[in-house]
């Protein structure tokens, strides 16, 4: 288990070895400092608290400064706790090179806030017909259920409300590039949140299935469609 705190810089694209375009997100990852180390004997579980981004002391409360002074760490704006494996102690620095190209990570961030939105934008609801009988409410949610049995709106029914501003985790993104000098981590795909938004990167919890080769999953039985060699199959005749 490896983890680091960072900021989303923005999206870009790079070309792989085959010349294909790969959409990527650039993240300013670290450097982070270990502020606290929790152990099973003292705290009941094992964890490491990381601090990220320097901030003026006047912007922190006295309890926060006391916590950081105890660790001998300069004022930090963000503190996050991770279940990190390895021999890390208070004061150690965690940089972007804790990850390597090819690693698979989960990225957690706060999605963009859109304020109070209607059911069409928030949930992808369908508009009502603008012919006879709809009136001036073509963007309403529509029927919410029977009036006799239940006689209430079922919990979880879609409707208008606050959109965005939620914690979102995108799982199993692979690391494309690591630059420890620029504190840069480049991952394939999109990451939740706006530019400059805080993100937490950690080793993925997904089970990574390694490919067994180009012919993996293709049957040698000519009677099966996966063989793609049976001349009686339409897929073979259409080639």
Notable characteristics:
Elongation Factor Tu (Ef-tu), domain 3, 3 domains, six-stranded antiparallel β-barrel, mainly beta, extended, four-stranded antiparallel beta sheet, 10% helix, 4 helices, 35% strand, 239 residues
State the helix count: 4
Mean pLDDT across every amino acid position: 84
Residues in helices, as a percent range: under 10%
What string gives the helices and strands in order?
EEEHEHEEEEHEEEEH
Number of domains: 3
Question: Any low-confidence stretches, pLDDT <50, length ≥5?
Answer: none
CATH topology of the largest domain, which one? Elongation Factor Tu (Ef-tu), domain 3
Give the biggest beta sheet.
6 strands, antiparallel, barrel
Q: State Rg.
A: 26 Å
Percent in strands: 25-35%
TL;DR of this structure?
This protein folds into three domains: 3-112 and 166-203, Beta Barrel (Elongation Factor Tu (Ef-tu), domain 3), CATH 2.40.30.10; 114-163, no CATH class; 212-239, no CATH class.
């Amino acid at each position: 288990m490896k983890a680091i705190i960072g900021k989303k810089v923005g999206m870009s694209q790079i070309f792989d070895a085959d010349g294909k375009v790969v959409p990527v997100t650039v993240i300013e990852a670290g450097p982070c400092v270990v502020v606290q180390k929790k152990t099973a004997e003292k705290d009941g579980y094992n964890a490491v608290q990381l601090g990220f981004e320097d901030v003026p002391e006047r912007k922190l409360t006295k309890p926060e400064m006391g916590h950081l002074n105890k660790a001998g760490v300069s004022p930090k704006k963000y503190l996050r706790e991770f279940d990190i494996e390895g021999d890390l102690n208070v004061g150690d620095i965690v940089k972007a090179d804790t990850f390597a190209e090819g690693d698979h990570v989960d990225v957690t961030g706060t999605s963009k806030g859109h304020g109070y939105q209607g059911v069409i934008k928030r949930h992808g609801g369908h508009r009502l017909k603008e012919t006879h009988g709809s009136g001036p409410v073509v963007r309403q949610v529509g029927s919410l259920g029977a009036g006799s049995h239940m006689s209430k709106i079922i919990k979880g029914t879609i409707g208008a409300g606050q959109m965005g501003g939620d914690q979102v985790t995108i799982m199993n993104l692979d690391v494309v590039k690591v630059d420890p000098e620029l504190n840069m981590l480049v991952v394939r795909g999109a990451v939740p949140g706006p530019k400059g938004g805080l993100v937490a990167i950690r080793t993925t919890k997904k089970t990574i299935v390694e490919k067994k080769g180009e012919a993996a999953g293709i049957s040698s039985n000519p009677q099966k469609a996966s063989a793609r060699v049976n001349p009686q199959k339409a897929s073979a005749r259409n080639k």
